[in-house]
Amino acid sequence: MPKQVRNVASDDYLTAIYRMSHDEGQDVIAVRLADRLEITPPSVAGMLKRLMRDGLVHIDAKKVIHLTPEGFRRAEQMVRRHRLAECLLTDVLKVDWWRAYEEAHLLEHGISDITERNLYEMLGRPKKSPFGYPIPGPGAPQKLSMVTLGDLKEGQEAEIDRVFEEDEQLLRFFDEEGIRPGVKVVIEEVAPYRGTITVRVGERRIVLGTPVANKIWVVQPARAGTSAETRR
Asked: Which Gene3D superfamilies does this entry report, sorted A to Z (predicted)?
């Protein structure tokens, strides 16, 4: 059996840790990882022992899980293949945008080093996934915006950078409402006691719950000293 197929379980853990820490700026602890993967805490503890034994992760004194250099390399390789598969599905096979994450998860483990190189060239050397995430490789940014719609104040404008991709029903909602990378939005109302924000997308007004708003990362127009990134 090809090596990339044999390592499915460990690669899923490594990519989850990568997404949570690198893409979302979270401290990854075992209980969060269990929740993300929908796996019991004892199962997560067992896999973490295996990953530590193999030199792929280490856990610091505060119980935060970190990828080692080798773990990071393997995670980036799988994330790269996943995001190339997403591009293949949406750009070539014309699969619905909101379906691409789940479908790509089925394909990523079957992509070899040879196939990956050819796929990258055939797709025109894409830089980002359909959901706005950078495709790891030469030239990919090391730091991403960690500002979400939920961080913004009334009247502020922003452009959607990327959206949380691991919830198919949420992606379908985003698709129906036109919430995609590259779309410009304006915050019309923040209602903390109701737990909602109202955004304008073109001529449409959309009400979002705060948990959903926090799964939409944005970039703001460059204004010296006034961006949400600066204020944080």
From this structure: 2.30.30.90, Winged helix-like DNA-binding domain superfamily/Winged helix DNA-binding domain
d(CA 187, CA 173) in angstroms, rounded, equals 19
Residue 86's nearest CA partner among 4, 7, 6, 162 is 162
Residue written as token pair 């995001």 = 83
The DSSP secondary structure of 57-104, one letter per residue, reads EEE-TT--EEE-HHHHHHHHHHHHHHHHHHHIIIIIS---GGGHHHHH
Residues 6 or more apart in contact with residue 227 via CB below 8 angstroms:
147, 220
The verdict on 128 and 173 lying in the same domain is: no
Q: Would strands 65-67 and 204-209 be described as parallel, antiparallel, or unpaired?
A: unpaired
**Tens digit of pLDDT for each residue in 12-66?**
999 999 999 999 999 999 999 999 999 999 999 999 999 999 999 999 999 999 9
> What phi, psi does 64 have (nearest 5°)?
-85, 135
What domain range is 190 assigned to?
A: 149-219
Residue with tokens 């483990």: 109
The domain tally of the chain equals 2
Task: Report the DSSP beta bridge partners of residue 218.
Answer: 160
What ranges in the chain are assigned the alpha helix state H? 3-6, 8-18, 30-37, 41-53, 69-87, 100-107, 113-122, 168-177, 210-213, 228-231
Residues in the chain, pLDDT under 50: 1, 224-232
Note whether 167 and 102 are within 8 A (CB). no
Number of H helices, E strands in the chain: 10, 7
